[in-house]
Amino acid sequence: MGKVTGFLEIDRQTPKYQPASDRIRHFREFTLPMSDAEVGKQAARCMDCGVPYCHGPTGCPIHNQIPDWNDLVYSGDWEAAIRNLHSTNNFPEFTGRICPAPCEEACTLNLEDMPVAIKTVEQALADKAYKLGLIVPQPAEAQTGKRVAIIGSGPAGLAAAQQLGRAGHAVDVYERESRPGGLLRYGIPDFKMEKHWIDRRVEQMSQEGVTFRCGVEIGRDMSLDELTATYDAVLYSGGAERPRDAGIPTNGLNGIHDAMPYLVQQNRRVGGENIASVLWDGPEVWAGGKHVVVVGGGDTASDCVGTAFRQGAVRVTQLDIRPMPPKTEDKLATWPFWATKMRVSSSQAEGAQREFQIATLEFVGEDGQLTGVKCAQVDDKRRPIPGTEFIIRADLAFIAIGFAGPNPEGLMAGLGDRLETTADRRGNVAVKANDTSYETSIDKLYAAGDVRRGQSLVVWAIREGRQAARAIDLALTGQTTLPR
Ligand SMILES: Cc1cc2nc3c(=O)[nH]c(=O)nc-3n(C[C@H](O)[C@H](O)[C@H](O)COP(=O)(O)OP(=O)(O)OC[C@H]3O[C@@H](n4cnc5c(N)ncnc54)[C@H](O)[C@@H]3O)c2cc1C
Ligand code: SF4
Fold first, then answer.
1. Which residue lies with its CA nearest to atom 13 of ligand 1?
2. Of ligand 1's atoms, which has the minimum distance to the CA of residue 240?
């Protein structure tokens, strides 16, 4: 373990942020990196518990061996530490930045509200490894002669592609957008994760032999049958992008948008790309000088808040139908699981007005333009309470209430009953066995990531991509050394 008495002597520290007034002037990352010495001290706080819940089933979904690399970081052995971290996680620089860190919730020191700063150490370790030149291509020693196609280049597709390429298969990744990365690139804003991190991995993978074919939509530019006829296996990792229907009357007003097209537009703008995308080729949406209302309480809503502030919104209000959660959780009732408690994202901390237990009844306006959002307080069954209605001024509104599942049009529409989906209303792609086979009802077709599990997290997508790669390797060669 790190330092035997570390957790007694050293306080938890996480990186400081640029002040909100500075960071909303740009779209770049705004955390101030810690020194190596401070990162080592934070790693030293790890107690190397007999049962390390942080990497067990309630903690890290990819089972990062957290106590092991905390110890290696504490001893300054960056090379062994990154080797260990890469053994479970292809992209720690992504998760170190944007994972909500269920590992820290499960940390034993979280019983005292002072978990080890695991995510901070993970990011610092990945960034240091890049600086030291330790992240280099690792091409396979021998080729198997098998070909695998991957549909979609989000974290699930990227993780699978890297694993399969390193196992010696010829891997082609098909992506309908102009650049690889999926929601990492076009959903998550740059201020949470700059996109050069994706470019570096794509470069590494290209040097390992993976090819990226962007601007190709399977189901439109090429059929799935063409792929299954050409390749030995095909992995569908197309994400879950169908927005949940809010059912709020828009009264035909201008100024009301789904969150995703707005975020995609800004990400493309920052990336120097034309703002029109596969998802959205409508008019430019810009929050500068406007009163903005964001309907929804999750990550996507929060990203709209931060984006609107950076575009110069006058005021941003976020509406959440759920009651305000408690400030602190009852640890003995929740630990080591993820607890519901009041969390404030960095975007919300930039000045958002948050309203809880509020239903959005309708959008109101004049001359076809949105001017306000009619709301009401709700009771504990989420029913509007008569007489509590009020109107919030709004020139622009974003609906960010989550995703219903994969897009039933495009690739999936052409497959009809051949592709089995889950019976629930999400309609995710069904597989024979999660965690082991990832096989769909179509011969040679596998599915992983959000398209299979519904909208989730980057770390879960990486896990699914890795496990699907193992299943494919096993099916193609009869054996596998890829980890589960
Ligand atoms: C705004 C937003 C913010 C988020 N923030 C976080 C966060 O902070 N932390 C976190 O852990 N998670 C976050 N998530 C969730 C996370 O981004 C997803 O769970 C994750 O990206 C899913 O990975 P995936 O590879 O399954 O799919 P995706 O990332 O959705 O990638 C799917 C890819 O497939 C491509 N594709 C689809 N169909 C086809 C086709 N027919 N042909 C070719 N290509 C196709 C798409 O263009 C896309 O690039 C966020 C999600 C959103 C929307
Ligand atoms: S990937 Fe997420 S859960 Fe796993 S160690 Fe990193 S921050 Fe924690």
1. 457
2. 30
